[in-house]
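A brief tutorial aside. Many learners find it easier to grasp structure tokens once they have seen a single protein encoded end to end. The record that follows does exactly this for CLUMA_CG012871, isoform A. Read the sequence first, then the structure, and try to relate runs of similar tokens to stretches of the chain.
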Amino acid sequence: MNNENNSDVVDHEAKTKLLEEDNEKLKQALTESQKRERLLLRRLHLKEQQIQDYVTQLTELKGSIPAKSNLVDPAINLIFIKLKNELKATKAKLEDTQNELTAWKFTPDSNTGKRLMAKCRLLYQENEELGKIVSNGRLAKLESDLALHRNLCEELKRSQSEVEGIIQDLDVDVEGLTSTIILLQQKLKMSDERIAQLESEMKEKEPKTEPEPETAPDDTIEEPASKKQCIEVAAN
């Protein structure tokens, strides 16, 4: 009988050790998720700042274009409207992504983080009571509690897997935002080139006023014929 009790105690201690190892792995996974979350937040902040810079540049660019050049080619106005709409859509998508990430934040102040930390503390407290349960001979209750702990661990693992999936989706969204920003940069460059071309055409089309030649006195020396021809061509 004593040998059977000792065997049960050894088996229980082994299961308790496995449970503690599972808890430690979950804590490490939680720390890793927090690091990845902070990294994603920094990347999102940088992308948002870049988009804001592009909006500022476009606003300044629109203010620097003369009103007359806008009337020369209506395509410029269409380009600005298209860029403005694309920027709005990109900003809306960025805000949605940031809101989704905030909802899954694992910080001590977030609801998800509080629930996870509460479960970890509960598991730790119950592990401390395992020794007392063994000494009192309540092995049946211990097996039931171990099964409950296993279920809790499985639930935490599933939650962690779901969080990792969401973070991977956010990585894909951030890559999409990067591609959109690169496309906007290319369109902005094309718009700058088009504006420079229009300004150059306007300068070429502006009439050039030539100064009227002064009437030479009668007693002046007669100018060469080539110079007179140049003056007549300029006058014509």
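Self-check: DSSP finds six helices and no strands in the chain. If you spotted this yourself, you are ready for the next section.
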